[in-house]
Every structure is written in C-alpha cells, then in structure tokens.
Specification:
alpha+beta; Heat Shock Protein 90; 5 strands; 62% helix; 10% strand; rod-shaped
Length: 392
C-alpha cells in the first residue's frame, strides 16, 4: 500500500467519521425520534469503529467491512440516529472490487456479506423496536443500494482488469517491436557480411588472375605486366574502399546506405571485368530506372559472382545479357569452361549458394547448368515476390 493510497483512504475515513459524528450529534437527518439515544462516549467509540478502519480497507477488505458493519449495526440496535451507513457502503464497495473475481467460495461469501446487509439491517431495526411498516421505502432502498454496490464493484474490477490487460498487451507489443527491430538489424548485418564476402572474393579472384598475368608477361611483355600490376592496384584500392564502407555499416548496425544499389552500376561492373582481362560481350535491354533497390542489389551481386566464376573456371571469355523487364530483371551469363578444370559445380560452393539465396529471398528463380563445354547461369528476379521457386 503506497503513500498515496494511505492518504486517500485516510481522507475517506476522516470524512466518513465527520459525517457520522454530525449525524449523531444532530439526532439524525430528519425529525428526531423520541426513542433515539443522544450522542455519548459509547456512541463516539462506535462511530470511530464504523469509520476509522477504512484507512486500511485496501489491505484487509473483508476484515474492515466486518468491523465497520458490526459497529454500524450496534449503533442502530442501541437507537443511535445513524440514518445512513456510509462507512459500511464504502467498505462493501471495496469488498466487491477486491473479491468479486476471486475463488468461488470467497466470492460467494463476499457477495452474501454485502448483499445480505440489507436483510440484516431490517432485523436490526426490528430489534431496536422500530416498526418496519413505517420505513418500507428506506429499507427497500438500502437493500437495493447494497445489491447495486456489489454489481458496481464487480464492473469496476472488470474495467481495471481490462485496463491492466491492455497495458500488458501494449508493453508486450512494444517488446515484440523491439525484438523485431533487433532481428532486422541482425539480418541486415548478416547481409552486409555477405556483401563483404562477395566483394572480397571477387577482388581476390581478379588479383590472382592479374598477378599470374604479370608474372608470365614480366619477361616477354613488360608493358602488359605493368598494366596488370596497375589493375591489381586499382582493384585492391577499390576493394579497400568498399570494405571500409561495409565495416562502417556493420559498426553502425546496418544503418549506412550500401553500394551498389543502383542497377546502372552494372555497367561499371562489366567494365571492371573487361579491364581485368575477361573478354566480355554484353547486352543490356530496357531501362533500369524503375528497379527496386533490393532487386538491383541482388542483380549486381549475382552478376558479379557469375563473372567471378567465369574468370576463375572459364577460358577468359563470357557472354552477358541483362534484361530490365517491367516486372523483373533477367540475367544470363554463358561462358566456355577450361577442359582441364571441368565445369563449376552447380550445387557446391558458397558462390552458387549465395546466388540461390538472393534469388529465393526475392521470390525469383536461378538456374545453373553445364552443357558440353559451356556453362550457363540464368536468373530471374521479380520486382515483387511471387511464388516462384529456385532451381539449379
């Protein structure tokens, strides 16, 4: 019981005591009865007993109600002119609020104690020598009032429980939103880590090819060797810049904007592979301007991984077709494979797995197959997820 509750209940108890003392001192609210007992020390003690326990009504509702009700009934039996049992009504309301939703036995007992106060009051007046036929309206009104007190207390309890349930639901919803935000942040960090893997893998493949070319051309073609070294330097510098952006994004919980998100960056990607020595024929159909960011990013990474595989496993050439359709981006990469290395596996390696996952998450399809000495990869990435599967 907090301090505010004590102060409020203390105020209610003081007000109830003041009203009871005033009523007793004035010999009732109406015309004084010749049978009424004037206020004396016993009356003061009973009035205190019928009011002051309300200070702790929230801590022990039934005990307080019992004390207040018994003190009130004794006042009436002794003909003290307490015309309205205000303290009992307040204690009865507290019992209804606290115990109307309790265990069955306790609820029934509390209801009988509150609703039964009306009949007990009639018996009390009869014991005090009053003629019940003279006060039928008063007795009926009091009986109805205590029934209404129980109903009102029960409804108040239900309302409080609904408010508590709504507050708990709001708190639970807030926790779920926070959990979803943390999950989204974790997924974004995973995506950024995958971008880092793709970028680093592509750069290392290019650097390996160019380093090998520089070594082989060092004696026969020094200019070609120098060009290969320049390419290694450019690729390494660009990769370091991209790694710096990705690591910064990881440190910022994925809030930084990542590149590439613009499908126009595909042109730069193709030029990068050409400069690294891959003989590329490319065809881009349609306008990339209306492609969603997620589709554009997936298209870029799938194309980058496919060309990295062509560089690593092919004979140094590839044919690329990218079509920006109104409803999807379609990518096809065809490259001859070296006879000594065979074809890249279609079901193994992180590259194929990563491409599959990107296509699947967008509701698209990805096919990777070898036909003789040619290896073909095709992907379709819809602008809006459909129910298409992913095959390989």
């Amino acid at each position: 019981m907090n301090r505010r509750t004590v102060l409020v209940d203390g105020g209610i108890a003081a007000m109830t005591l003041a009203i009871a003392m005033s009523t007793l001192a004035a010999d009732g609210l109406g015309t004084p009865s010749p049978l009424s007992t004037p206020l004396d020390a016993l009356g003061v003690v009973l009035a205190v007993a019928a009011s002051v326990p309300l200070v702790v009504r929230d801590r022990a509702p039934l005990a307080v109600y019992t004390i207040v009700a018994v003190a009130t009934l004794i006042l009436l039996v002794l003909n003290y002119p307490l015309d309205f049992p205000l303290g009992t009504a307040i204690a009865a309301y507290t019992v209804a609020v606290r115990h109307s939703g309790g265990p069955d036995l306790l609820r029934r007992s509390a209801c009988a104690a509150v609703v039964g106060f009306g009949p007990v009051l009639a018996v009390t007046y009869l014991l005090a020598g009053d003629n019940l036929t003279d006060i039928p309206i008063e007795l009926t009104s009091l009986a109805i009032m205590f029934c209404a007190i129980w109903i009102t207390g029960d409804r108040s309890r239900l309302r409080r429980e609904r408010i508590v349930a709504l507050e708990e639901r709001a708190a639970r919803t807030e926790r779920e939103v926070e959990r979803e935000q943390r999950l989204a942040a974790a997924q974004e960090r995973t995506r950024i880590a995958r971008e880092l893997h793709d970028s680093a893998g592509h750069a290392i493949s290019v650097i390996l090819v160019q380093a090998g070319a520089a070594r082989l051309l060092h004696e026969r073609d020094r200019e070609g060797s120098i060009r290969a070294l320049h390419t290694i330097e450019d690729v390494a510098r660009g990769t370091m810049d991209e790694i710096s952006r990705l690591v910064r994004a990881l440190r910022e919980d994925g809030q930084s904007e990542l590149t590439p998100a613009d499908p126009a960056a595909i042109d730069d990607l193709l030029e990068g592979f050409r400069s690294s020595g891959l003989a590329l024929t490319s065809r881009l159909d349609g306008s990339p301007g209306s492609v969603p960011r997620s589709v554009a990013s997936a298209a870029y990474r799938i194309l980058q991984e496919a060309l990295t595989n062509a560089t690593r496993h092919g004979d140094g050439s590839a044919d690329v077709t990218v079509r920006f359709a109104p409803e999807a981006v379609e990518i096809t990469v065809v490259n001859p494979t070296r006879a000594t290395t065979g074809t890249p596996p279609t079901n193994g390696g992180h590259g194929i797995v990563g491409m599959r996952e990107r296509a699947f998450l967008l509701g698209g399809t990805l096919q990777a197959k070898a036909s003789g000495s040619l290896y073909e990869l095709s992907a379709r990435l819809p602008h809006f997820a459909d129910r298409a599967g992913v095959t390989a």
